[in-house]
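Renewal narrative, Specific Aim 1. Our central claim is that a sequence can be written position by position from structural information alone. The example that follows is taken directly from our test logs and has not been curated for this report. It begins with the structure tokens describing the chain, in the order in which they were read.
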């Protein structure tokens, strides 16, 4: 496979304004994410943004940035446009979408999201980790991945939900919002209208399942820390400083 890593970044965060440029130990957050993606060493890395300030920060750190429109509804739409600008000839057949608010993501997780493509049946690949904290099992902000085993440490996704699911005995899995798309799957995904369940749960990945696309989930042992608020930012600074 010939993957490219794309990192969507926008400035319009309501809880943490100018989030991609938030300083963490002397570097903008988006640069931390870019460096982790480069360390994964699975292919070229580019940031997709509509912000000149983000582009300047990325380029100052020696990175590649693709300027996109400012009216995209989601990161998937943004990376789709960026892919067309970066690679109009279709050289890259796999696109890894890394969220721009994961400054501590381990490179091995970025590498690991490619593993479900060992089977040709998977259209989209993603990650999940077993929930170990009881309070997370009922927290609607922790998205649960529900799937059936298809290989060791791998599930075929049946559903994603903010509810506590499935019921009964057994592990629950915390979905990690890191995706890899086969190129044709990304093309199809962004062409689809929002799904009924997608809108109800407010989970974009349900659009793919509603349309009959297959998502396989690699089970990993850790959930990367995401920055969504000023408190998260301070915690990220402390964690990286230590």
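The sequence written for that structure reads:
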């Amino acid at each position: 496979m010939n993957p490219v890593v794309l990192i969507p970044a926008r400035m319009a965060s309501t809880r943490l304004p100018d989030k991609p440029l938030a300083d963490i130990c002397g570097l903008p957050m988006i640069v931390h994410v870019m460096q982790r993606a480069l360390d994964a060493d699975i292919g070229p890395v580019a940031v997709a943004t509509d912000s000149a300030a983000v582009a300047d920060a990325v380029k100052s750190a020696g990175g590649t940035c693709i300027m996109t429109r400012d009216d995209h509804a989601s990161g998937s739409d943004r990376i789709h446009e960026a892919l067309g600008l970066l690679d109009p000839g279709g050289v890259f057949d796999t696109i890894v979408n890394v969220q721009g608010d994961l400054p501590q993501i381990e490179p091995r997780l970025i590498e690991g999201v490619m593993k479900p493509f060992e089977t040709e049946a998977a259209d989209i690949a993603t990650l999940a980790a077993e929930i170990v904290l009881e309070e997370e099992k009922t927290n609607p902000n922790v998205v649960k991945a529900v799937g059936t085993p298809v290989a060791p440490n791998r599930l075929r996704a049946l559903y994603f939900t903010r509810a506590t699911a499935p019921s009964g005995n057994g592990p629950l899995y915390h979905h990690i919002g890191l995706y890899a798309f086969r190129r044709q799957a990304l093309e199809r995904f962004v062409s689809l209208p929002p799904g009924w369940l997608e809108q109800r749960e407010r989970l974009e990945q349900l659009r793919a399942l509603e349309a009959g696309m297959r998502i396989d989930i690699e089970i990993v042992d850790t959930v990367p820390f995401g920055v969504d608020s000023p408190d998260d930012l301070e915690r990220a600074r402390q964690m990286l400083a230590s």
